[in-house]
Amino acid sequence: MSISPARRTAIIDALRKGTVPAEGLDQLAVGLDRLAPVLGEELDKVASGSAVFKAVRGEYGSGKTFFARWLQQQAIERGFAVAEVQISELETPLHRLETVYRRACEELRTAAVSRQAFRAVLDDWLLSVEDDAADSAGDAEELLEERLRPVAEAAPVFPLALRGYRAALLSDETETADGLAAWLGGQRNVAASAKRAAGVKGELDHFLAMGFFQGLLQVLGGSGHSGLLLVLDEVETLQRMRGDVREKALNALRQWIDELDSGRYPGMYLLITGTTAFFEGRQGIKRLPPLDQRIGVRFDSDPRFDNPRQPQIRLQAFDFPRLIEVGSRVRELYVTGISEDAAARITRYVDDDYLRVLAESVAGKLGGQVGIAPRQYLRMLVDVMDRVEMFADFVPREHFTPTLEGTDLSDNERSAAASSSSGSLDDPDDIEL
Questions:
Q1: Which of 110, 271, 371, 375 could form a disulfide with 317 if both were Cys (CB 3.0 to 4.6 A apart)?
Q2: What is the pLDDT of residues 42-58, one digit of tens each?
């Protein structure tokens, strides 16, 4: 595999801890080949000034988080900025768009800045305005006003604060600049003195946040980025919210999709992830027929012929062949960064047959639910290869017993493990009286 040592280490470290790697996911992607061309076309369309909405659905273990991170990597490689927001009832409810905007700015990433890139994007945009004005022998103030005009119509306070931020930078008023940058990023409790310096008042609300997203897209485009890939993860949490809150959230999503279609957010790729129940159940999008009409898709029984150009993508849970294939890829990645002797031992002891045995063992301890097994399977696989690398006399088949500790399990894994250990009581003869 052609991959840098730093990226290889980051991937292995993440798998060792049981988390999804932040980058390098193309090295592990299995079963996404059929989706890649269409998604690439959609990203290119957004980069040319359009907007796209996409929903990805699947049960736990189908790889929704992995897919979202993989698509983010594809977007970053195409020059996009990306942000992933976890939807939750208390911190980021969908019907309060200001909370989504704030978290998106906090989580903003670019190819140059791996975390909290919002401030860097602002500075790059202002620098591009200054450079373009200098190249054309024009006035930076006039050029600034010209580029902010589309945003001013939707959210006049955004360009107002941006002008104040620029003025504070030019006059070396650091505290004011910091405060206005925070306010532009949707942060609360910004010092009144900073806002007063720019002539802005109050806090960001749901309706103002719509304009702020437009402002963010304008700044991203002006600083050389292709657009914004915004991921709203775990939208199925809407089903557990109070009835009136759920209705507001579903309507907010419907409104956002309509505005994407109307061209209000050029340069935005909006991706949501959720379970099948959210898209098919009574407490999900079907509760709001206009939303269901916009993003609902009727899937055939054979997933091989799903149309990836539809608003929804259906992910299939891992099966044994895919689980073993991703294990093989991790093994190949692992041996690229170790000595020849250790690599030879791993090739000998952690062969394809052992990958299959380990996969069956882990899935068996999780009630045979292969779709839930990838996280623990890859975690154990890296552990085994660590030991083979470090100890010349370590033989996995003799010295390693796959075990699952309750403290290391997620809720779904714990439930699956409990069902496996308790056994089936479908037969009356199996019931202890």
A1: 371
A2: 999 999 999 999 999 98
3-state secondary structure 45-96: HHHCCCCEEEEEECCCCCCHHHHHHHHHHHHHHCCCEEEEEECCCCCCCCCC
Say if residue 387 is in the same domain as residue 332: yes
Stretch 418-425: mean pLDDT? 56
Residues 86 and 50 grouped into a single domain: yes
**Contact assessment for residue 229 and residue 82, using Cβ atoms and an 8 Å cutoff:** yes
Indicate whether 123 and 105 sit together in one domain: no
* Domain of 87, in residue numbers: 31-110+225-300
Question: What is the radius of gyration, based on Cα positions, of the chain?
Answer: 25
Pair (338, 405) in one structural domain: yes
Is 155 inside a domain boundary?
yes
Is 23 domain-assigned?
no
SS3 288: coil
Give the model's confidence band at 426: pLDDT under 50 very low, under 70 low, under 90 confident, else very high.
Answer: very low
**Exposed/middle/buried for residue 426 (C-beta within 10 Å: 0-12, 13-18, 19+):** exposed
**387's tokens:** 């030991």
DSSP state of 109: B
Q: What is the pLDDT of residue 1?
A: 53
Number of helices and strands (H, E) in the chain?
Answer: 19, 5
Please tell me whether residues 406 and 339 are part of one structural domain. Answer: yes
HSE value, Cβ hemisphere, 13 Å, CA-based, for 140: 12
Q: Are strands 52-57 and 312-314 parallel, antiparallel or unpaired?
A: parallel
Q: Which residues does 117 contact at the CB level (< 8 Å), separation at least 6?
A: 81, 108, 109, 110
The angle formed by the CA atoms of residues 48, 219 and 54, to the nearest 5 degrees, is 50
Domain end position, chosen among 157, 178, 210: 210
Same domain, 123 and 106: no
pLDDT tens digits for 112-152? 998 899 999 999 999 988 888 887 777 777 888 888 887 78
As a whole number of angstroms, the distance between CA 225 and CA 256 comes to: 22
The model's pLDDT over 197-222, given as tens digits with 9 standing for 90+, comes to: 999 988 899 889 999 999 999 999 99
Residue 313's DSSP bridge partners are 56
Helix axes 206-222, 140-154, angle to 10 degrees: 150
CA proximity to 374, closest of 382, 80, 351: 382
- 106 and 250: one domain? yes
Residue 426 placed within a domain: no
